[in-house]
Amino acid sequence: MISSAQTEVGTGSGARGGRGGGWLAWRPVSPGPGAIRGVRGAPGQIDYRLARRALISEFRKGRLARHEVCDAHPELRRAARECSEATDERCPICEDADLVLVSYVFGPRLPAHGRCVTSRAELRRLAGRSGELACYVVEVCPACDWNHLARSFVLNPARSA
Prior knowledge:
Elements: E1 46-47, H1 49-60, H2 66-69, H3 74-82, E2 85-90, E3 98-106, E4 115-117, H4 120-127, E5 134-140, E6 147-154
Antiparallel strand pairs: 1-6, 2-3, 3-4, 3-5, 5-6
C-alpha cells in the first residue's frame, strides 16, 4: 500500500482522540504532495482538519447522531478494505478500530468516478500525465463506517500549464 511521507502530530491532552476532548492529533495522511518527486511544499493543497474537528465536536456534544456521521458509501467501504493504507490513529467516533486512508485521483482521461490509487508507483505514473489531476485522501473507519475527507491537492501543478 501507499506509505506516508509526511506526519503531522499534535500535542496536548487527548492527542490520540480520546474522550478528554483535547486537541486531536493528525496522523499520517498520504499520499501528500511530498510523495511525488519534484513537488515541493504544498501548492494547491487543502487540509480539512478544522472541518474534521468541528464534526467530531458536534458528534461528541450529541448534536449529530452516529448514523449521520458513519455513512460511508459501499464503494468507499470496499476500497477501505482492499486498497487502503493503515494508520495508527483510532477512530474518533467508535474508538474501536484504527483509521485507514483511501486515495482517489480525478482528472482528464480518468473515469468519472476517479481512480483509487493503491501504490506510490501508480501515483507517480499518474503525476507524469498531462493535464491537472486532483488527489483526494479520505480517512475511513472499517468498523463503524465513519469517513472524512482529510486532504486534497493538485497532483501535478507544473504540468497543467
